[in-house]
TrEMBL record:
Protein name: 3-hydroxybutyryl-CoA dehydrogenase
Family: Belongs to the 3-hydroxyacyl-CoA dehydrogenase family.
GO terms of biological process kind: butyrate metabolic process
Originating species: Brevibacillus gelatini
GO MF terms, alphabetically ordered: 3-hydroxybutyryl-CoA dehydrogenase activity; NAD+ binding
Domain 3-hydroxyacyl-CoA dehydrogenase C-terminal: 186-282
Residue ranges constituting the 3-hydroxyacyl-CoA dehydrogenase NAD binding domain according to the UniProt record: 6-183
Length: 283
């Protein structure tokens, strides 16, 4: 199959980044969300990123306009009828994702592949709500999408080999490096990353060191680009908690228990950078 049109469902931080790299790769893209202001915010983020690249001399103004012209705003999931490939990037909630996949399965033509950008939910379970489980796959991009090279590609139990191959090729066309992973809670990225972030939060909770000190240790001592608490704030503390819950429940192993301080911050609405406060305060 020759993919020409991609729909990205969810115009948040991840969805807008995915739409940007898809349009940059020359695909026609629908950027879909439930309300027009959400789509407009996503488009504004893309325009801002591209303008920054023009200012840096990495992109011409003509190319920027051509990329933007390839993206169509959508608030109607029925537009997916024109898509060869759909990438869902909505909130990490199985009920919400299941409802979207079930509708997409009805709307899309039989050849359309349905991918999820889920960071930890089982692809096999998402696929099970459709009548095309062999055409459902995980395609996990990293934040910020335009910068990070990795795409974890997750095969569900029934994902067809040719669907895997096509998704791998598509990732490369988008300038990414695909890595194959099997369908287990948290896949590889979040199975390794989240317990580290959670442990850093335990260090704050137990008074081992301040957030600033913990971040300095990991940046200067381990060469991480961001300290774990800065990164947790950047990802969103609600997302971190959600992924820890998925690991804890999925493996039934106490080593994945979320730190009580993480729960407390999320209950307080301290969600990190997006809410203005997490381990740090943002203007
Ligand atoms: N969108 C687009 N581009 C961005 C960006 C954003 N949000 N943030 C930074 N950039 C670009 C900058 O424009 C700059 O581009 P050029 O090289 O062309 O000039 C480049 O990235 C570097 O940016 P900066 O110089 O401003 O800052 P930096 O060197 O500190 O890099 C960073 C910023 C890339 C975010 C870096 O701090 C980093 O790699 N942090 C770790 C990110 C990470 O771990 N991501 C994975 C999170 S986990 C996840 O996503 C999975 C999950 O399921 C939770």
């Amino acid at each position: 199959m020759n993919v020409q049109t991609i729909m990205v469902v969810g115009a948040g931080q991840m969805g807008s980044g995915i739409a940007q790299v898809a349009a940059q790769a020359g695909f026609r893209v629908y950027l879909n969300d439930v309300q027009q202001p959400f789509v407009e915010r996503g488009l504004a983020t893309i325009a801002k990123n591209l303008t920054r690249n023009v200012e840096k001399g990495k992109l011409s103004e003509d190319d920027k306009q051509a990329i933007l012209s390839r993206i169509t705003a959508s608030t109607d999931l029925a537009d997916a009828a024109e898509a060869d490939f759909v990438i869902e990037a909505v909130t990490e909630n199985m009920a919400v994702k299941s409802a979207i996949f079930s509708r997409l399965d009805e709307i899309c033509p039989p050849h359309t592949i349905l991918a999820s950008n889920t960071s930890s939910l089982p692809i096999t379970e998402i696929a099970a709500v459709t009548k095309r489980p062999e055409k459902v796959i995980g395609m996990h991009f990293m934040n910020p999408v335009p910068v990070m090279k990795l795409v974890e590609i997750i095969r569900g139990l029934q994902t067809a080999d040719e669907v895997y191959q096509l998704t791998e090729d598509l990732s490369k066309q988008m300038g990414k490096v695909p890595v194959s992973v099997n369908d287990f809670p948290g896949f590889v990225s979040n199975r390794v990353l989240m317990p580290m972030l959670n442990e850093a939060i335990y260090c704050v909770y137990e008074g081992v060191a301040t957030p600033e000190a913990i971040d300095e240790v990991m940046k200067l001592g381990m060469n991480h680009p961001m300290g774990p608490l800065q990164l947790a704030d950047f990802i969103g503390l609600d997302t971190c908690l959600y992924i820890m819950e998925v690991l804890y429940e999925g493996f039934g192993d106490s080593k994945y228990r979320p730190c009580p301080l993480l729960r407390k911050y999320v209950k307080a609405g301290w969600l990190g950078k997006k809410s203005g406060r997490g381990f740090y305060v943002y203007n």
